[in-house]
What does this fold into?
Amino acid sequence: MYNSSKFLKATVAVTFTVALLAAPLALAEDPHGKESLDASATKTVTGEVVDMMCYVDHNATGDKHSTCAAKCIKGGGPVGIVSEGKAYLIVGDHKPMNDQLAEHAGKTVTVKGKMAERGGIAMLENAEIVKQ
It folds into this structure.
């Protein structure tokens, strides 16, 4: 016959043991859920300024798309830089850089900022334009 009391005690014991074994791993993670960024995470990227919506949707780049890209960026669409086949979302000091980058849509610029990457998305934050 099935003894539910023994089963419950065994389940609690196993759960407690697993929790104890996993505790060091949980404590090692960043409590804020962010990867820590330090000075070594600073990156300089030279590439084409793109509006991320059209770039991701239909690979829109270059002079032929610069007017549309500038309009999308000025309208508040996400702005990025494409360099060597990799796209970077560009963000200023916790705010968009659309006003500064819209005039450079379809052109090459150099931007420097803190590199962060998660879930396949690369971002330069606290970015500043180094060379236009």
The domain at 39-131 is CATH 2.40.50 (OB fold (Dihydrolipoamide Acetyltransferase, E2P)).
